[in-house]
Design a protein that fits this description.
SH3 type barrels, Fumarylacetoacetate hydrolase, domain 2, globular
Length: about 260
């Protein structure tokens, strides 16, 4: 199932995206549901063509927990060791944007880079000190993510909060995919028409259930929280005027224009 959050003439709603993904936006519709998708789904009578609504970030997390160097080839391209345990950092909720929202390049940085990732969305009742089985039950679904990073500030600061935390530095979308296995999915990033990153989820050092369990022993994961699972090799610079697109097989695509901060 594909669950989207979207703006329409009557306001903002969650809905289920229907139709074959290969048909493109013109062949998809979104069926509105009552309230939040974390309970039993109850459909309203409202339905829109996907092309007639604006997709928003599919969830508004209280926090975004990220994992560094979770692909060996990405660690290698930065001449860094693969951590013995998951390397955690946070992005603020204010960094989250949705499909087609602009990534804004801050004046403090001259080297902003893309990082294509799979995001885990936590469902109810959340996760606190759970084992692997509990972590698997806590995973509501998956979506595409871009862990935008000011690489020069990351190197300068020696810790990652500023480099990862600017407004617009966490695109999510286009929707949450539920009820599917993440075992071996292609993760791709394109800037305009150039393929920059191409990896597979099977190449992760720590798989999503391991990550969720590990994080839950550090901090409580609330329903709607997001865990980013790391990026494959090929991260690279973004420039104003470009469009960066993250694609995860079976999860749609997340495209964002890149603009200077006004």
């Amino acid at each position: 199932m594909r669950i989207a959050r979207f703006a329409h003439p009557g306001g903002m709603s969650f809905g289920v995206v229907e139709g074959e993904a290969e048909a493109g936006a013109a062949g998809l519709t979104v069926a509105q549901i009552e309230g939040h998708p974390f309970g039993q789904l109850r459909f309203t009578e409202q339905r829109w063509a996907l092309a007639d609504v604006r997709l928003l970030s599919p969830i508004l997390p209280s926090k975004v927990v990220c994992v560094g160097r979770n692909y060996r080839d990405h660690a290698a391209e930065h001449a860094a060791e693969v951590p013995a345990e998951p390397l955690l950092f946070l992005k603020p909720s204010t960094s989250v944007i949705g499909p087609q929202d602009a990534i804004r390049l801050p004046p403090q940085s001259v080297q902003v880079e893309h990082e294509a990732e799979v995001a885990v969305v936590i469902g109810p009742p959340g996760a606190r000190r759970v084992d692997r089985a509990g972590a698997e039950r806590a995973i509501f679904g998956w979506t595409c993510a871009n862990d935008v990073t000011a690489r020069d500030l990351q190197r300068m600061d020696g810790q990652w909060t500023r480099a990862k935390g600017f407004d617009s530095f966490c695109p999510l979308g286009p929707w949450i995919v539920t009820g599917e296995d993440l075992a071996d999915r292609e993760v791709r990033c394109e800037v305009d028409e150039e393929v920059r990153q191409l990896g597979r989820t099977s190449e992760m050092v720590f798989d999503p259930a391991t990550l969720v369990s590990y994080v839950s022993h550090v901090m409580t994961l609330l329903p709607g929280d997001v865990v980013l699972t790391g990026t494959p090799a090929g991260v690279g610079p973004l420039a104003a005027g470009e469009t960066v697109t993250v694609r995860v097989a079976g999860m749609g695509e997340l495209a964002n224009p890149v603009l200077e901060l006004e």
